[in-house]
């Protein structure tokens, strides 16, 4: 005879199994569609032009854990008349999961000996009522001071810290989605003044608007990209 305890235990197991099935992602969303980042980021836009450089702190090295996190990276130095040179690093991961997720600059800079300070959440205005959640910080050693502005995208979310990143990835998981993700990092070598960070954000705006409208979702997510298109920007 099956007693009440057996029924309760069986019911609990069924609920747990149903919950696990509900949390199992079933749909992989990859906005880059197998292309390369190089193909969507213009070498020139506005007054900015790409120029050769090797002065980058990179988010991955061959054979490292980060090398498995990112399926594609782009590093470029851009210059413009009467402007600070801007180093741009894009790191794309086509699979964001519990094991593979974007590393934030605080991690990769600290790993090579930089001290991180003045980390602040802010926003990058792109158009009226359209802004990208942004984080600004300063990475420094005895020989180098590098102000940094960056954002990350996971699926259609733009988290600004590790907690938001975990929360937003869990929301995608609840929706049955395995998202892709990208880190967009902009930096220069200069004193971390308000004017320096303004130069970084102005470059960031020019970068987003310099990308073809059909490709902007790769950088900022479908929702913000659609809003820019609606505004005719």
Describe the 3D structure.
The protein is of the alpha+beta class and 233 residues long. The chain has one domain (27-231). Helices cover 33% and strands 29% of the residues. The protein contains seven helices and ten strands. The protein has an eight-stranded antiparallel β-sheet, sandwiched between helices. A hairpin with a 2-residue loop joins strand 2 and strand 3 (48-51). It is globular and about 50 Å long. The N and C termini lie far apart (70 Å).
Radius of gyration: 21 Å
With strands numbered from the N-terminus, the spatial order across the biggest sheet is 2-3-4-5-10-8-7-6
Poorly predicted runs are 6-23, 63-67
Strand residue content: 25-35%
Based on Cα principal axes, name the global outline: globular
| Topology as a string of helices (H) and strands (E) | HEEEHEEHEEEHEEHHH
Short description:
Strands 2-3-4-5-10-8-7-6 form an 8-stranded antiparallel beta sheet, with helices on both faces. A two-stranded parallel ribbon has the order 1-9. 33% of the residues lie in helices and 29% in strands. The chain has 7 helices and 10 strands.
């Amino acid at each position: 005879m099956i007693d009440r305890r057996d029924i309760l235990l069986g019911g609990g197991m069924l609920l747990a199994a149903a919950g696990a099935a509900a949390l199992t992602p079933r749909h992989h969303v990859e906005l880059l569609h197998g292309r390369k980042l190089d193909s969507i980021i213009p070498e020139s836009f506005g007054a900015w032009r790409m120029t050769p450089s090797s002065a980058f702190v990179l988010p991955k090295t061959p054979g490292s854990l980060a090398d498995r996190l990112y399926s594609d990276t782009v590093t470029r130095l851009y210059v413009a008349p009467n402007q600070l040179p801007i180093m741009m690093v894009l790191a794309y991961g086509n699979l964001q999961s519990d094991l593979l997720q974007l590393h934030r600059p605080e991690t990769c800079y600290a790993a090579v000996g930089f001290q991180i300070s003045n980390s602040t959440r802010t926003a990058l205005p792109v158009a009226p009522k359209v802004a990208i959640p942004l984080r600004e910080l300063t990475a420094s050693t005895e020989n180098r001071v590098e102000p940094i502005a960056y954002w990350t995208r996971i699926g259609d979310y733009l988290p600004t810290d590790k907690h938001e990143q975990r929360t937003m990835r869990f929301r995608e998981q609840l929706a049955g989605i395995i998202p892709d993700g990208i880190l967009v990092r902009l930096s220069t070598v200069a004193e971390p003044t308000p004017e320096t960070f303004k130069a970084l954000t102005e470059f960031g705006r020019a970068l987003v608007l310099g990308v073809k409208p059909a490709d902007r979702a790769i950088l900022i997510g479908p929702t913000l990209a659609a809003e820019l298109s609606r505004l005719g920007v």
